[in-house]
Design goal:
single chain
Amino acid sequence: MKRRYAELALIKLTTNGGFSLLEAMVALTIFSGAIIALYGWYDAVLSSMIRAEERLEVITFSKNFNSYVVMMNLRQESSGEYRSNGFLARWNAKLIEGKKEGRTLIGALGHYRLGLYRIEALVFDEESGRDIEVLITRSVGYEGVRLPSTGL
């Protein structure tokens, strides 16, 4: 029986209930890998959010630019610059479909001669000067050729 107690005491001394160095190193390696993967995912999400925000600014600028182009007569202005929200657009308009007489809803000659223009705009970031995008759109240019009759 004494021998049995001696064996149990020896087993108790050799198993102290803690982690071995190898177990601790394996756990630390797994934890480090998880942290690196989490940081990579966070960086990708942050980069995507920054790109999406920049894209939204460019979309807003392009809508503003399109409104600007619609309001002007392209027969009188064929190039220029437009600035808004920290962006600069240098644009050119070229006639792509010849001038045609406008018609009213009933088919009679209208008051304007119309032409279809292709507009290309190079968009720059004013702060950094880097190219952002090339916007391409079409718009109608006009010139008044007849005075409206009052019909009175």
